[in-house]
Design brief:
The protein has 293 residues and is mostly helical. It contains 13 helices and no strands. The protein is globular.
């Protein structure tokens, strides 16, 4: 249970950091790029990973972590835009509502049982997340200008969760492979981001230099990279050590994230919580309880 709690806290820290990037005029993509290098280095040190390139491509999971790295940096950037342009709570909602996809995967592919209680909890969770992030005006926060951001975050985050679940269930046989998988995925994300940045420098050196080469971007990337590594690390620990099935763990992680992110948005950034939002939070708590039964 402790790893589930730690996963939730580190995930919410990431959303708060994205919101602060806007306040302190940190280039979000530059910070995300540095973040993945920091996460990779942190993982190598913490997990004591020894990487041999000659052996790396012998692992079957390498073909999952390569496209997953591309998803990591793309969805991370879209989450940051959603948090900045709409709200922390909506970013969390779009990111964490995606638990539906790994739950369906766990039931269909991993033969996790689907009973009335679990089905009820999932339906309740969908209603809870919608209510918890509904604006006081009666429409979802942010209006229609950025409506595609939450949709893209939802789809991408669901694919990431399914990929992590797939890798854990079928390919990662021990903690050493989990460590290698995590570090390689972060490094892939960094390489893809670096290619994008190099292209921007080639295209317009002056603008890219003014935008990227700032000390505040480095500080932001370091502040983001450490909790980002641990958010993935704790997910694997939750799947490995928890008494609950993956079809229970992902909803609990994601619903808890939505509740905490909504509360933090209210306390730290004056994002309003209406009566409807509060009802949604209570329903999310009820859903968590049902999932764990």
């Amino acid at each position: 249970m402790i790893y589930i709690v730690l996963t939730v806290f580190t995930s919410v820290i990431l959303l708060i950091a994205f919101k602060l990037f806007e306040k302190y005029q940190i280039n979000t993509f530059a910070a995300i790029l540095i973040n993945y290098l920091v996460a990779c280095v942190t993982g190598t040190i913490v997990l004591n990973v020894s990487i041999s390139l000659s052996e790396l491509f012998e692992y079957k999971w390498i073909w999952i972590c390569l496209p997953l790295g591309a998803l990591f940096i793309l969805i991370f950037y879209l989450i940051s835009l959603t948090a900045q342009k709409i709200s922390v709570s909506v970013a969390s909602m779009a990111n964490k509502l995606s638990f539906v996809m790994p739950v369906i995967y766990s039931i269909v592919m991993l033969n996790d049982p689907l009973n009335t209680l679990k089905f009820t909890s999932v339906v309740l969770a969908l209603i809870a997340v919608y209510l918890a992030t509904k604006s006081a005006s009666g429409s979802n926060a942010g209006g229609s200008t950025f409506y595609l951001l939450p949709v893209l975050v939802f789809i991408g985050s669901g694919l990431i969760d399914v990929s992590l679940n797939l890798a854990k269930a079928h390919y990662l046989t021990n903690s050493q492979e989990e460590a290698l998988f995590t570090v390689c995925t972060f490094f892939t994300a960094f390489c893809i981001g670096l290619i994008i940045v190099i292209f921007q420098f080639i295209r317009n050196w002056a603008n890219a230099r003014a935008s990227y080469l700032k000390i505040r971007n480095l500080i932001g990337g370091i502040a983001l990279g450490i909790p980002n590594f641990f958010s993935i690390f704790f997910i694997f620990k939750s799947l490995s050590t928890s008494q609950f099935k993956s079809s229970q763990i992902f909803p609990v992680l994601n619903l808890s994230n939505v509740v905490l992110a909504t509360i933090c948005g209210y306390l730290m950034f004056n994002e309003k919580i209406s009566r409807t939002n509060f009802v949604g939070i209570l329903l999310a708590v009820a859903s968590i309880i049902l999932i764990l039964l």
